[in-house]
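cache lookup: miss for this entity combination. No prior model stored, computing from scratch. Input as submitted by user K.M.:
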Amino acid sequence: MIELEIDGKKVEAEPGNMIIQVADAMGVYIPRFCYHKKLSIAANCRMCLVEVEKIGKPVPACATPISQGMRVFTKSEKALAAQRAVMEFLLINHPLDCPICDQGGECELQDLALGYGDDLSRYTEGKRAVDDENLGSLIATDMTRCIHCTRCVRFGTEVAGMRELGTVWRGEHMEIKTFVGKSLTSEVSGNIIDLCPVGALTSKPYRYTARAWELQQRYTIAPHDCLGSHLNVHVRRNEVMRVVPRESEAINETWLSDRDRFSYTGLKSEDRLNQPMIKQSGHWQSVSWEVALEYMLEALKKVIAVQGPEQAAGIISPSATLEESYLFQRLLRGLGCPNIDHRLRQIDFADQDSMPLYPGLKVKIADLEQQRAVLIIGANVRQEQPLLALRLRKANLKGAQIFCINPIDYQVNFNLNQKLICHPTLLPEMLAGIIKAILVKQAIEAPTTIAEQLKSIQVTEQQQAIAEALSVNQPSTILLGAIAQQHPQAATLRSLASLLAELTGASVNLLTEGANTAGAWLAGAVPHRGAVGLTQDKLGQTIAELFAEPRKAYVLFNVEPAQDCANPKQVTKALQQADLVVALTPYNTPYLQQHADVLLPIAHHAETSGTYVNAEGEWQSFAAVVSAPEQVKPGWKVLRVLGNLADLADFNYTASTEIRDELQGMLANHSLKVAKQVQPRINLAYTKHPLTRITEWPMYRVDGLVRRALPLQQAASHDSVGIRINSKMIEQLQLAAGGLATVEQAGESVTLPVILDERIPQGCALIAGGFAETEVLAESFGAITIHV
Amino acid sequence: MAETELYKLTETMCGEIDQWIAKFPPERKQSALLASLHIVQKETGWLSTAQLNAVADYLGLAYVTVYEVATFYSMYDLQPVGRHKVHLCNNISCMLNGSEKLSEHVKAKLGVEFGATTTDGKFTLKHAECLAACAGAPAAQIDGVHYENLTPEKIDKILDNLD
Amino acid sequence: MTNVCYRTLQFDEPWTLEAYESVGGYQVLRRIMQEKTPCDQIINELKEASLRGRGGAGFPTGVKWSFMTSASQGAKYVVCNADESEPGTCKDRDILRYNPHQLIEGMIIAGYAMGCTSGYIYIRGEFTEPFARVETALQQAKAAGLVGSNILESGFDFQLETAIGAGAYICGEETALLNSLEGKKGFPRFKPPFPANVGLYGRPTTVNNVETLASVPVILEKGAKWFLELGKPNNGGTKIFSVTGHVNKPGNYEVPLGIPFKELLELAGGVRNGNKLKAVIPGGSSMPVLPAEIIMETDMDYDSLMKAGSMLGTAAVIVMDETTCMVKALECISKFYMEESCGQCTPCREGTGWLHRVIHRIENGQGKPEDLDNLVRVAKNIEGRTICALGEAAAWPVGAFMKHFRDEFAYHIQHKKCLVG
Ligand SMILES: Cc1cc2nc3c(=O)[nH]c(=O)nc-3n(C[C@H](O)[C@H](O)[C@H](O)COP(=O)(O)O)c2cc1C
Ligand code: SF4
Ligand code: FES
């Protein structure tokens, strides 16, 4: 510990700290522009100059390490003179038009300049003007305002791991630029808006729509991935004007993904459903809630009574809140129907009985930084959980070795020590090879479940290296992403991963879909377990079975069936033949118009209170940040009324927090003993199609809200729809990159642009889900043909 | 990265660049960047975006890193230039010894301002910052060669002898 | 005249290995390699000789080298600063062109004394001819077993390579130079840490000027005492003065430190056309200007010039006669620092342009009376508040011109024309 004095106050701090860090911790504010606690020290703005006893020149507080007995003066005459001088220099070439600047009212330069007020205008020469950059649909630029603090450049280089912005030219001609007019492609680019202390980089969607002082700040949790980032939502007159991060060291630090930051732009979509509607003899009509709910309940009860409870099914979004999921399954189970699922894009459920209480992370998000070795299996981490990728990058910078097994050579923002890129059907074999490497090395006999199948596997040097790294470098982690979980052999992959973990001491972590997969499991939105994992008398069937063998009634909760589910063709067929399709939905889409019978308008996440349980098991509750349109109701309230109407017991909640508390109480009392530790089935066998479709959900197509966020759809980081395929395959199939081609799958066909993409393995084409264009197609990893 | 397809470094260039790479520790290829840009610039006298990309790919650097370097140093030209680069020094020692008169003379002779290229594409005229030839002021660098103790007559001769 | 760095100048082809060896070149290296001279001994020799850095700051070389010896295992570097770009300075170019082997010998000895694994000679991009000479000399030295692995069978390995700049004065600043050597923009680094701890590629590094390094073999050959006594206490040795501007015989003069300015002026043939001396910048354009009456009474060494209110800097002596317009001269100087600011730190990026624009306005007859105080104030506001010393380099000339020649600026403002016609 070092003892020093700042502005006359004694303080102790760890050696290696800079003056500004100690001052910040004490609550002594030193002005700064270039310094940011999450970025490297540049010491270029010179705003933080302070006086230190016995040192002649003022020193930058951000770059001067503390030393024993140091006496620092942050507001002495000498310090203030230096700060004032720097402020004057900063302002001479800065436009003084705060009233028309978008940053006005929340500008660090403006705030500080006011404090130094007086003699800041002796500059009479012309001001510099700088050309603007087009950074794409998310970030607006006004580069004349730039004060060259380089926070944005350092963010890209250091945090995002994408060197897209740089300082070009030199001296007073220096400018912040991308490489010759490129848009930013980073999935976390929006953070530079927060970092920019002036109005040079601002939010394009928000720009000029409001002034800082008109906004009210409210708190919520991000609704698109399993991290549950903390958000501050800025609201004016019941309208969300923008979203910014709320600092949370454990989860999102000071950052936000572009998806979480800009998805609010989808809130005002034109296809919002504003009124309950029912379809009678082919005609839609708006009705009151009472009519709609009665109608729906009667019809559903009738199906259950007449056709049997197995003829009904409830499908809910993995981003529904804990409370919604809980009431949803209570309602359906209360009516006698156990067919409930939220695993929209999964196919293989063979191991569902051996799943833990909820799938997720064993390692805390923040502790990912501490891992020494990481194996990523079937994940596009940058797109799935952008901020988790940043943690992996940090681990990597601290020396962690990172490996991946993927069907697509995804771009990552860290160094991969090894990457095994293979045909998707070979993922299990690839993983098994690593297991074999360890078994051979340590002369352990293979478990009987797998021994026979391992025999024919040849271990490669890469697999050997990965096996070695995972065992030697501790702690080590295995991450299974969306592709692994949506894979036809997902259960095998999970089982292999567990086996590998046992052998190496690594932990197995599932990167789950949506914002609340953990919550959905806890709430009992799965067919084989009730809330908090309680065993059920009546077991339901999985989503795969519920669509493969069509049922007579479907209740959909915030699901766009053909864009959200694994096999849209099958889903559509099932809905077509059903007697009753009820959709609780924020949207009124042509698809629902065609296939549903009842539409109940429910609130968006921003309009409802509730809880998300993130992948590490953190329960995070929030209140509504805006109120829903008049006839639109929060989902939990609709479900509660339905429960009341159905005369179900204990359905009299008056606040969503009561529902959460009930669950929490249950959890405290019944902890799940996964009844039978079923030996999971490992099956490396596969059928290889001549041409396989790989399906992923691009990051801005994962749910209804992002799909409606126009600026995200236009962002350079967005993957447009098409047939993504490598050049060899293009040649083989006689296609033309940039031209059109027709994909056929299960008797359906669509014509899409051919996109050259060398990341795709031989024998495959990536045709994304989540698009209207591909909603007639079938299985995620099914056989396809392509022709011009 | 697809952009490289637009420009391919010649074998000779790669050979020369490799010699520079060899001077530095293996993981420090970036150290060869300044020399690589000089090598590629020899071809046409200036560096196109495609050429910058090609160098970036060859050395395994982000495009913007190469762009930053190419714009920082004054010897790289990022716009087309004339066949001959004429750089006149105007710093203090040269100024004291008549560089301004010399500049006026050359401007008039070539019919261009500083920073411009003659219409026939023969000369690009630029200022040089101090060339460390102050004892031979006024000085100039023409196509990489220093010339000292210049007079209007002397520089006329030099320029007239270039093709 | 005693030549130290210009030892070979009398030859027709002074840059060859033969020429250098004929004046005793590489003998010191051979002796050191044979005797395995202790590193401390070499460093102490330099301290006693009172060799001070010839790159501008005048820091004692022996002391600087001693910062390196205790540093950790692994790669360590010595880097030669051959970026010579300070206006008025042209001495290193002639060492590179005419005596490259002596620099190379100095580098190898430096590498040995500081326990370095390799060295780089960073040469500014415009130096086509000097670069070729050094490169050829280096190849010869390598072929002769003087550089590389197991030098002269001594078991000492030292790799030495040339590196090239691309036009940026700031790359003469040692940390900017290191960034440039790493293939980056020449942005100076914030110090501490100093290069002796964190330098090239993050490893301990010492940067020395060409003339400093080229002096080393001769000092070790002839002894510290000999060198020290060439000059004065604390100002040992000879120094190359680049005398330029309004003199009859501009050129590089390698003469003992402490030579009276008067004598140096005589060596350079006196003021041109028999004109009256007006002012002299004694150490490159960034150093404070001195009016004739002061400089005529001053000796040319670090301490004397400091006492006189200026500095020896690079010993680039810029002579201005009575016909010189001081506004014009300062305008020229201030333009240079504006053009050459790297742009990273606020006071320098914004302040150098401000200074230049105001001076330019005055020169063009659009000055205002308040400009004078403002110039002084802006210069003061840059000074001491920047990452590197370019801030000072831009501010000092303004301060000194305003101190000694304020009247001339005032005249310009009032009469919208020049005092000297
Ligand atoms: C703006 C600036 C430019 C400089 N240019 C040079 C230069 O061209 N050559 C040089 O040797 N030193 C130059 N220096 C000084 C170097 O930073 C460094 O002090 C010197 O190379 C050390 O060598 P020495 O100890 O042998 O003098 C410059 C310093 C500054 C601040
Ligand atoms: S003082 Fe000038 S040259 Fe030095 S780092 Fe700052 S901006 Fe760059
Ligand atoms: S905050 Fe310290 S120099 Fe910018």
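stored under new cache key. Chain A has a mean pLDDT of 95.
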